[in-house]
Fold this protein.
Amino acid sequence: MIENRIREYLLANIYTAVYLETPKDMPDECVIFRIVDRSWQNLIDKVTVEFNCYGKSKEKAMELDANVRRLMNAFAEEYDISSSKLSGGNDANDTTLRRYRYRVFYNVTYMEE
């Protein structure tokens, strides 16, 4: 599954925790990602991935967001997939968790092995 490939890649290359869902005990800094859209046509899979980068300060959340962007820009080459393209992002403080958060979206195109 592409979620596992993304998680393994981020864990190997980033200095903080990476989750597929919000943990019960939220650390000061982490990345939580999820698939927000999925399509499939002619054996080609396409997903839109939302990354939520949390930090103890706004600056830390912004730095983590920049690291995720850097890594996801290189993801296609590292994992030999068709593409990983930035589709948007914003400064989106999480009012529910009361945490600093930056959010970024990537469109990933690949063929499942």
